[in-house]
Amino acid sequence: MGDYYVYILASKRNGTLYVGVTNDLVRRVYAHKNDFAEGFTRKYGVHTLVYFEEGGSREGAIQREKQIKEWKRRWKIELIERVNPEWRDLYQEIL
Questions:
Q1: Among the listed residues 17, 6, 7, the one whose alpha carbon sits nearest the alpha carbon of residue 77
Q2: Which of 34, 50, 59, 61 pairs as cysteine with 4 (C-beta 3.0–4.6 A)?
Q3: Which of 8, 32, 4, 34 is nearest to 20 (CA)?
Q4: CATH code, 56
Q5: What's the number of domains the chain is made of?
Q6: Long-range contacts of the stretch 58-65 (C-beta < 8 A, 24+)
Q7: Domain span at residue 86?
């Protein structure tokens, strides 16, 4: 199977964060951006892809997603700002 990704969406800089995992990053972020599924990202307007990393296997990506979800908010922000200090939307870069 293909690689899996762990990603973080934000409502705005330092706003609400969402951590997810997928094997099709483009499709999944597109679905979030267009509110195709009811849930957290739709309810809170979390549509900006601010971070992603390859997680390799499904199991590895799920483990990494759980790890990041357990982190303090400050740690998540530091992770994002290490690679994306301007909090720009990375969606165009993955197309």
A1: 17
A2: 61
A3: 8
A4: 3.40.1440.10
A5: 1
A6: 58/1, 58/4, 58/23, 60/4, 61/4, 61/5, 61/6, 61/21, 62/4, 62/21, 64/6, 64/21, 65/6, 65/19, 65/20, 65/21
A7: 4-94
